[in-house]
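Notebook p. 47: complex prediction with 4AD.
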Amino acid sequence: MVWIEELKEHVGKEVTLKGWVYNKRDSGKIRFVILRDGTGLLQCVFAKSEVDEATFELADLANQEALVKITGTVREDKRAPGGVELSVRSLKLMADSENYPITPKEHGIDFLLSRRHLWLRSRRQHALLKCRDTLIRAFHEFFEKRGFILIDPPMITPTSCEGATTLFEIDYFGEAAYLSQSGQLYMEPAAAAFGKVYCLAPSFRAEKSKTRRHLTEYWHLEPEVAFLDLAGDMELAEDMLLCVVRGVLEHRADELKLLGERIEGFDKHTELLKNLDKPFYRISYDDALELLKGKAVQMKWGEKFGADEEAVISREFDRPVFVHRYPKASAPFYMKEDPVNPKVVLNFDLLATEGYGEIIGGSQREDDLAKLEAAIERQGLPREPLEWYLDLRRYGTFEHSGFGIGIERTLAWITGIHHIRETIPYPRLIDRIYP
Ligand code: 4AD
Ligand code: MG
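Predicted complex, structure tokens below:
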């Protein structure tokens, strides 16, 4: 038994394959079955003169997504997708598939999302999730090369990290517990233990709004580094993003091309990504307010940027832009106060190009025990479940920084996909938990 992706090494030989019927065509005395086995598509040619009658008839009757076993000779064909096609000798139906719901015609998004378990077999979804695989591997490779240690954070936590409004509460043997919003608080002690660490795990956000960039469960990659300040943190984010973008462009050119067929302006988008280089832009929150004012978007100092404002800012730049030093009043408790201006914190959001908005959020962490205690108090957070976190500031407190990047938002940006729901195998949205 061979896989379709291996067939180039079997030209001229007879092979047997298993796969699902992806599509069919006929022309006179020839039948074509496009076979799909997960590793590729293969055109199988049934010539009436070369197969027995039963096989020829089966080629006509086999339903979409029926499982078949096919034996035939591999022929080189430069025009075929994998460079080869199969001259069939025999075909056996292994398992039928009646009325497969996802036909080659257009379907609505809700119809498809309700059949996500089957939709994964379609070409575009297949291409997208292969890009996801490559992206995640590129992340791991980047951090491994730099000597980072992978540390897995817990998913069940006693506290919030990113504010109470998006917390999923669970009943933990009679006590309230929460699904993790971020591994950060657990990466900080790990940075004291190992110097350079990162995690890749799901984060949960009870996002009550429907947008094209919010999932309730997403995959979150978070590095944390000792002796790193805000400037160094932004450099790390920049190097990492360049590396993974290049990795996907290099290894998934075919998949990106397929995805681009249905995306307006895709060529321009890939050109921009291909030419991406450092340095990315760096502007302060104050600069961003000025920029917005120039675009007739009036905001008061202290207000948070929404998706619309981020889109306006990012469209002004041909590379991603770091917006740093946001107002302290609306920042999470753990961000370090700027010693130069205590009204702001040492943090950043990285906005992707072309209006995609924030894909990374990071900061230098507060390392002063008294300041951190004050922030916890000011925000009315329960102190007891955070005692362990305060220990880091008691036993050899240290300068450290990190950031979090959402896998799905990054993938949507690189592949040019409008909505992030297609960038994860099984999306969880405010109105969707099935399948
Ligand atoms: O900006 P956020 O909330 O930052 C943190 O959680 C920090 N604790 C990270 C850290 O410093 N270690 O989230 C970081 C990133 C966002 O920039 C975005 O890419 C992604 O996580 N993200 C989401 N992705 C999909 N759906 C959501 N609901 C998301 N919320 C955040
Ligand atoms: Mg953020």
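Notes: Residues 123-145 form the longest helix (23 residues). Residues 349, 358, 361 surround magnesium ion (ligand 2) (CB under 6 Å).
Next step: compare against the earlier run before touching the bench.
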